[in-house]
From TrEMBL:
Domain of life the protein comes from: Bacteria
Gene3D superfamilies on file: Vaccinia Virus protein VP39
GO biological process: methylation
Keywords, alphabetical: Cell projection, Cilium, Flagellum, Membrane, Methyltransferase, Transferase, Transmembrane, Transmembrane helix
Name of the molecule in the record: Class I SAM-dependent methyltransferase
A Pfam short name: Methyltransf_23
Stretch forming the signal peptide: none
TM segment ranges: 309-332
Keyword Membrane: yes
EC number: 2.1.1.-
Species name: Streptomyces mooreae
């Protein structure tokens, strides 16, 4: 048995014990009003499953007809967040996430985000919220060599980032909870594909306002729920990323919320932040839904030999197609970025 199989077998008893108590405790009561504007004019946008990890459960996204906000409903509870995040970014999923974070595509995205702040001066201190293992900070330091980068996150990855020298200081915990001790310390606070994971996005923006010095800048990138790709690809659209993404904020809503918090929006961009993986991620999500499952600790037993063979041969057969889709995503990226097919947007706001 491989080392990974041994790790999975070791994790299985805990997962099976949790699942024996049912999934109900992983969800809060269903909302009847929009968490952004409190309107009761809701419609169902999407019903899907956990494509990336194959953990059990069905997840629903509703959309507000009044303000356009898209949100998970019912939302994960504290127990649900622990269950569905576990072994994704850390633990069993750490090696996979590290490979993705070091890929050429990720490095290009990191550098583009860092360059977006160049017109607004050279920051002395920069706090990256939701930093993971600190790979963005390591690349951003090459663009801003005189800047001290600090990182904040819930998981142990932020401590790994500090040990590996990608950040000079690590904060582990809630940004909202830690903001008071970080007051007025930073010239830049960045949130790259972080806000959609949070329970209360407005509180996160308020925390950023607290942590920034007057005149400092907040950099936010999030998936764009108004993207045409989201409509065309439906539940297979990668940025839905259920059940981890709790909120999808339209650009106008985010700009209004920033103004309410005491920011002035100085730049918006619906083009450059596009992540050129839509066709590939949709194909992978679809493939994961039809193939026999791999060995996972939230399954009661390890899949049998025949099932493993079928999965392995199927992946081998479709590998050329996936490689072609990766190439097509990259080839189409310059066109996609110039259209509403772009799947993400960026906002830079100055603390007044």
């Amino acid at each position: 048995m491989s080392m990974r199989s041994e790790q999975i077998a070791a994790h299985r008893p805990r997962y099976q014990d949790e699942l024996a108590h049912g999934l109900e405790r992983f969800f809060e009561p269903r909302r009847t009003t929009c968490p952004w504007c409190t309107s009761s004019r809701l419609r169902g946008r999407l019903r899907t499953t956990d494509h990336p990890q194959h953990k059990p459960g069905t997840f629903v996204l509703d959309q507000c007809r009044s303000c356009g906000h898209v949100f998970q409903n019912p939302r994960l509870s504290a127990d649900g967040l622990d269950f569905y995040y576990r072994d994704c970014y850390d633990g069993l999923g750490e090696a996979t996430m590290a490979r993705l974070a070091r890929s050429p595509l990720a490095v290009r995205l990191y550098r583009a985000r860092a360059r977006a702040l160049l017109p607004f001066g050279r920051p002395s201190r920069w706090l990256d919220v939701g930093t993971g293992h600190g790979h963005f900070c390591a690349e951003a330091r090459k663009i801003h060599p005189g800047t001290r980068f600090h990182g904040l996150d819930w998981g142990e990855g932020v401590e790994i980032a500090a040990r590996k020298g990608r950040i000079s200081r690590a904060y582990r915990g809630s940004f909202v909870g830690l903001a008071g001790q970080l007051a007025c310390q930073y010239d830049v606070v960045s949130m790259h594909h972080y806000l959609e994971h949070t329970l209360a996005p407005r509180q996160e923006l308020a925390a950023a306002h607290t942590a920034l010095r007057p005149g400092g800048h907040l950099l936010v990138e999030v998936p764009d729920p108004e993207s045409a790709s989201a409509r065309l690809l439906g539940q297979w659209w990668g940025p839905w990323l259920q059940p981890q993404h709790l909120h999808f904020v339209p650009l106008d809503n985010l700009c209004s919320a920033l103004a309410e918090q005491g920011f002035t929006v100085v730049a918006t961009d619906r083009h450059e932040p596009h992540v050129p993986t839509d066709l590939t991620s949709a194909a992978v999500n679809l493939l994961q839904s039809v193939l026999p499952s791999e060995d996972l600790p939230w399954l009661p037993h390890r899949p049998g030999r025949v099932s493993r063979w079928i999965r392995g041969l199927s992946l081998l057969a479709v590998a050329p197609v996936l490689l072609a889709l990766i190439g097509l995503d990259l080839l189409l990226a310059p066109f996609t970025r110039r259209t509403r097919l772009s799947n993400a947007y960026r906002v830079i706001a100055r603390r007044d």
